[in-house]
Amino acid sequence: MSEAIIAEALRKTYPNDVTALDGLSLAAERGTIFAVAGPNGAGKSTTVRILTTLSRPDAGTAQVAGIDVLAHPDRVRRVIGVVGQKTGATPEATARENLLMQGEIYGLRGSALQRRVDELLDRFQLQEAAGRQTSTYSGGMRRRLDVALGLVNRPEVLFLDEPTTGLDPEARSQLWLEIERLAGEEEMTILLTTHYLEEADRLAGQLAIVDRGRIVAQGTPEALKSELRGDAIEVGLAQPVDERLVLAPLQSVGGLSEIRVDARTVRARAENGASAIPGVLNALERQGVQVSAVTLARPSLDEIYLRHAGRSYADAADAEMEAA
Fold first, then answer.
1. Model pLDDT for residues 208-237, shown as the tens digit of each residue
2. pTM of the full predicted structure?
């Protein structure tokens, strides 16, 4: 069996008819980093909770390391590591004490446990601070300790639920390097959830983009981006406009495709974006539309999300924040 994680048609509804998962299916190959990316509220954490036996789906099946999650949750727990969004460390305890307690939970004792704790403290550059209460740690140090706690039992599959949220750019980059090392050197299967699309693009060998409890796109980051030909043009408008006012003039501009008008933003694709921009600006100027900004970019996962979800990633994130 080449897949370390298989989920099929998972459904989960919370009170007040809140649909968290709407038939979600995915398969992660062994020894890879598989990213589940999407805005907050898309269903990422619910997926992790089901796969790590913390929640049961209303429908669907799942296997982790070849073990049925619903039929044998105790066996699943022995072969996985989990790093949740909130720290799993006891703040009043030191890093060493936290790791010792975690090891004892998994049945480690004596010199074997001491060796494993020392190994993890060294790996995550926590040896000098090992005797300090973790309440005194920086955000980056706490996150490194959380990952170390998830690795005490040498899991076959490691679940990282939004591990870099709230970290500064330097701490985030350091954790990215460690995640890559885990997958590369130890051939560990890692399922990573994130609402940072650039993080998924950087780390993932395979990627599933989730929106409203459904997977809207799945594949390698490069394969997904290869769906998009040419450059992306985005034009910010000084005032909201009626789509009907500008759509026809823009459609007459040579080389443009996938034109979208959304109040104060015009988006389109072009084989040669630099050559197409003057025509776009002229078409808008003839309609009396004032432009506030123009950007040109190569294909990105943001555009993949827009194509498959029907809304921009920023709009989806804003909608979830308002709902919360």
1. 999 999 999 999 999 998 888 788 899 999
2. 0.82
Q: What is the 3-state secondary structure (H, E, C) of the chain?
A: CCEEEEEEEEEEEECCCEEEEEEEEEEEECCCEEEEECCCCCCHHHHHHHHCCCCCCCEEEEEECCEECCCCHHHHHHHEEEECCCCCCCCCCEHHHHHHHHHHHCCCCHHHHHHHHHHHHHHCCCCCCCCCEHHHCCHHHHHHHHHHHHHCCCCCEEEEECCCCCCCHHHHHHHHHHHHHHHHHCCCEEEEEECCHHHHHHHCCEEEEEECCEEEEEECHHHHHCCCCCEEEEEEECCCCCHHHHHHHHHCCCCEEEEEEECCEEEEEECCHHHHHHHHHHHHHHCCCCEEEEEEECCCHHHHHHHHHCCCHHHHHHHHHHHC
Query: pLDDT digit string (tens) for 64-120?
Result: 999 999 999 999 999 999 999 999 999 999 999 999 999 999 999 999 999 999 999
